[in-house]
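Shipment paperwork, digital attachment
Item: protein structure file
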Amino acid sequence: MVAVEPATVLFATALATAVVGLVVAGYAYRGYRRNDSLAMFYLSIGIALIAAGPVAVSYGLAPLLSLSDAASLLGVLWVTIAGLIAILYSLEGT
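Attachment content:
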């Protein structure tokens, strides 16, 4: 039996989360284009930030900028908060 590194499983799971989240965000964006609904636009942005943002920070920005674990986690939390604010605005603000 071939042993799979935990880091490989973690990366594959993170990548799958980002891909599925971007597909859902794409559907929300299509809803925005079809109905000209600003709420759907902010919903699509929020979903994309929540699903793909942490992956982009963890596997893109953190290694590129040589961020510490704490700085990387802070970036993940900031992008998640930004996504939640966009979703909140889509539900309440428009």
